[in-house]
Amino acid sequence: MGILENNYDFNKYRFFYAVAEYKSFSKAAENMFVSQPAISNAIKNLEQQLNTQLFIRNNKTVTLTEDGEKLLYYIKNAFENILMGERILTEKEDDLTGTIRVGIYSHIAQFMLPKVMHEFSNKYPNAKFDIYMTSNMEMLEKLRNNELDFVVLQYPIFLNEHVLTEEVICELETCFFANKKYYDLYLKNHDTIVDYPIIYPMRGYPDINELEEILKKNNLVIKNQFTCYATEVTQSLAKEGIGIGWGIKKCLEDDFKRKELYEIPVDFKTPTTKFSIAYNPNFLNKTTAEFIKCFKDEVKKISIK
After folding, report:
1. pLDDT at 13
2. What is the DSSP string of 114-158?
3. Cα separation of 118 and 227, whole Å?
């Protein structure tokens, strides 16, 4: 009952959010269709109400104080939740028009998204898509704050977060790969994979852990190693002859066809990589819920299990 018992002027928070977004009182006033003094007075009153300074005012711009950053976090979440409620309640089953906000790795988006998005857009032409391909941590934070509807990332995405639903949606083969020079040398000399520099992805995931165990069992010790967190960059490094890469075979199909990269045969079975989809079922609009069904059906077709 706290909100109902107080005379909150929510316009103050709207104006605060606008100034924080535009980093300018004048731009906020222009976009909110009010006078600049109105914006300035609202922020001044809000600062007095909260007994803290929210902005550092400069000649040409304004920046948030530490308390301003804290308030923005909660205000942004509140507005996102309001918008989410509107989206859920205003959509019609037979005419899905909502926006689908997806967080996904760029290297898997290239073969997971285009076909299903094309088919979904043909069926629901008024549906909209916002695709985010930022850092892993940023996508997770956006999902928690309801700024994304779902994310598709490497399994496991979450541990002990019961509010969010996570499902493994596919399992894909991995392989070692290299340019023509390394490929020919490898076959000619009957070398082992660890005789060459290896370009490794980020450690800590089940597939990496399994690969390292496999190498140990085969008495293979990597002596020369590079670490690269981006699959596309690993592919580029391998093409330049920096080393032999390891990654998802599906991501390399075009490079193999163009003979820009070659799969390196090994005498042991490489581990698979699992991908999960995670979302909050309580905050899915009808458009997103329908797209998730279509997306999961399409991704199953490329999964090896």
Report:
1. 86
2. HHHHHHHHHH-TT-EEEEE---HHHHHHHHHTTSSSEEEEESP--
3. 35
pLDDT recorded at residue 1: 40
Residues contacting 247, CB < 8 A, separation 6+: 107, 174, 175, 177, 201, 231, 234, 235
Q: What Rg value do the Cα atoms of the chain yield, rounded?
A: 25
The conformation of residue 105, written as its DSSP 8-state character, comes to: -
Residue at token pair 């069926």: 123
Residues 6+ apart with CB under 8 A from 1: none
> Considering Cα of 230, then 236, then 240, then 246, what sign does the dihedral take?
positive
Distance of CA 164 to the CA centre of its chain: 15
Which residues are paired to 277 by β-bridges? 152, 167
Q: Is the dihedral of CA 45, 46, 50, 51 positive or negative?
A: negative
pTM summary value: 0.72
pLDDT along the chain (305 residues), means of 10: 60 88 88 88 89 86 89 81 68 70 94 96 91 91 89 86 87 96 92 90 88 92 85 94 95 96 95 95 88 96 89
What structural domains does the chain harbor?
A: 2-81 (1.10.10.10), 91-172+274-300 (3.40.190.10), 174-271 (3.40.190.10)
